[in-house]
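Structure tokens please, single chain.
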Amino acid sequence: MRKWLPLAAVCLGSFMLLIDVTIVNVALPSMAQNLHTSFASLQWVVDSYAVPLAALLLGVGSVADLIGHRLAYIIGLALFAVASLVCGLAPNPGLLIVARVIQGVGAAAMFATTFALLNSSYQGRDRGTAYGLWGAVVGASAAIGPIVGGLLTQGLSWRWIFFVNLPFSVLAIVLSLRVFDGGIPKHGLRVDLPGTAVFTTAAGVLTYAMIRANDDGWTTTSTFGLLAISLVAFVLFFVIEARSRSAMLDLGLLRNKAFVGILIASLLVNFAAFSSFTYTSIWLQSLLGLSPIESGMTGLPLSVAAFAVSAGIGRFLHHRAPGPIIGTGMILIGLGALANAGLIRHGSSWPALILGFTITGIGVGLATPTLNSSAMSAVPVHRGGMAAGAVTTVRQLGFAIGIALLGTLFATKASSTVSQAGVPHPAGVAHNLAGGQARQVLAQAGSHRAALDSTLHAAAADGLDLIFLVSGIAGIVGGLLVLILVRPAATSTAAPEVAAATA
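Here you go.
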């Protein structure tokens, strides 16, 4: 039993950092009411965690090589724990967002060392078992997040979605000190500080531009300026990586069509499957009156389907070409989102989500467990860790961009519906609706409450239809591109040690 303690230490960290990506979704209405926050701040509560987690993964991985993987993992756990405490105590949105950024930095250090710690702790069949169990934990965490968030928010307070991290972080630190050796730092390596800084800037500015577009509009000078800055930063990143001897991303990997296809799927999988959770939670709680627990439980079909598919058939897929598996999963994720878009109407309630979430869950169960392993198999062995890091990076970046873009689309469509109904100040009403403040808006409506309530239901339904439509298209397009790009021959040359790690 002792030999599985390293796996337990790694799984504790991975589960915490990934569940914190989605756990806040059902708590957003309570946060909005308690902190009197704005719609933009609500988005940043999610994105201020996802952006640094995505942007720093590859760079932090280089730091971990220099100082040792155990030390980097423990530092990440400690940062994550302290930031979680500050999040739970935060008296205002500003401090909460700053603490979420620090949480993201700690999470990046934890995630960047996962593969190295598992590889140093297990060999042969044990390594395959460890990766399989770790993959199940990873696959279930994002879908379980809203359920856990609902239980904690309703049973205690939204602040406990952060406080609950503290005992698990302490346990993971104690386990890590006992079961991992100090490791051998790789002297002579250099950290790609310019690449990390520029990539972080590009990702952060792009996300901020999409959030600001909701207030300023897509055609304004400020939005175009931010998008231009982000584009320049991305171009500069590729220039730096092409010339750097310690590049955190080998651009030669992008000449591999299979790897590019896997990156596209990674970018779109969280976008299509999970980014909409934020806005369905707001609809369910602030308009339909569901409790946080009930709102979280609406995602149960997705969670159960994803876990059942991943656990039930995963062991039969190890020696099959990953392209059709990932592509089919992505297409199912897209079809699930389109089902939601077609079933949600002005008078709909939570049952309208069951079919779409079930289909999406099946797709998640197929696609997500295969992404990292297929990325490692598609590239040379000595680039396996970099490939897995790149996949994880773009997955989290896709989630952050999805939250920002879908939020803007939701508010824009809701504003259009409110405006057509003749409600004064439609943009402000739509912002409050998207920020989970529908009840406050209705409380100020006076004799027009009934009419405004009907309009808000219609606006929320229209907004959800649009974001599910966009999510569905993203999932299907991603799936088709994977089927085209990820061919069996491109991923059949995996070295034995990589194949063992993908089992």
